[in-house]
């Protein structure tokens, strides 16, 4: 999805130089409150996330995009389409995370909506999911606003989650 854009966002490939700009996400305890098993040290958590992003790029198993504001050229968040395995089934997930200073401004929905549109326009899947921890109400609201519904609940990476889905 690199070089895509929405009304306010540019979707770019994540680079190593984005690390320092993304680190505040991991420094904010609210960002990891819903997901257990993450490193407590923000630098370690950010390194692990970036390592996985670059690994996905190499594997061509989807990937997160750095979301930059068209107006300010500042990093707003990460979003993308990720190949995931849920209950032994391969799925294409819409993933999104926004830096805390940009919460509640519609960026997560804008990014998720663009991910959905690109996936369906390119016929990459006839169904998309979002894996959302059962207590993460803000992310659930974003998924619902994006036309998704709770398909089922399960455990994913030792976390209780709802699998939100949307079909073509």
UniProtKB/TrEMBL annotation:
It comes from the Bacteria. GO terms for molecular function: acyltransferase activity, transferring groups other than amino-acyl groups. Keywords: Transferase. Residues 9-168 form the N-acetyltransferase domain. The keyword Transcription does not apply. Transmembrane segments: none annotated. InterPro entries: Acyl_CoA_acyltransferase (IPR016181), GNAT_dom (IPR000182), N-acetyltransferase (IPR051531). PANTHER family: GNAT FAMILY, PUTATIVE (AFU_ORTHOLOGUE AFUA_3G00765)-RELATED-RELATED (PTHR43792), N-ACETYLTRANSFERASE DOMAIN-CONTAINING PROTEIN (PTHR43792:SF1). This is Protein N-acetyltransferase, RimJ/RimL family. It comes from Maribacter arcticus.
């Amino acid at each position: 999805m690199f070089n895509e854009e929405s009304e306010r966002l540019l979707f770019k490939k994540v680079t190593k130089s984005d690390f320092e700009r993304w680190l505040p996400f991991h420094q904010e305890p609210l960002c990891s409150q819903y997901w257990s098993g993450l490193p407590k040290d923000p630098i370690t958590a950010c390194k692990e996330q970036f390592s996985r992003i670059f690994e996905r790029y190499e594997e061509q198993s989807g990937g997160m995009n750095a979301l930059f504001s068209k107006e300010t050229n500042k990093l707003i968040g990460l979003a993308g389409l990720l190949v995931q395995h849920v209950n032994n089934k391969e799925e294409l997930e819409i993933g999104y995370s926004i830096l805390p200073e940009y919460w509640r401004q519609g960026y997560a929905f804008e990014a998720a909506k663009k991910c959905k549109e690109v996936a369906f326009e390119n016929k990459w899947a006839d169904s998309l999911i979002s894996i959302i921890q059962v207590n993460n109400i803000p992310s659930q609201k974003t998924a619902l606003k994006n036309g998704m519904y709770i398909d089922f609940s399960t455990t994913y990476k030792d976390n209780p989650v709802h699998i939100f889905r949307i079909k073509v």
